[in-house]
Amino acid sequence: MGDGWEHRIVIEPPPSSWVNRDQPLPVCIAGENACPPDDVGGPHGYTLFLEILGDPTHEQHEDMVQWIGGVFDPKGFDLNRINREFKGSKGRRR
Prior knowledge:
Blueprint: H1 42-53, H2 61-68, H3 79-88
């Protein structure tokens, strides 16, 4: 950690209509943008990473595409992935 990231997380109680549902909690209902890749170098490194990806003529472009494993959509948010990770981490919480 220690890269200077700041996150805003809002935790709200579930609606009363969920009280008797079998939906495991917590559950994410919305979000914005993709998670920056691990080890990208904090906010400044992420900004540089996006600049390089956005410029196919940049000398490091191909290296970054290979490093990220192909396409990276900085606006993408995978709600299903987040909830799968919540569900999968239930046994690891302390």
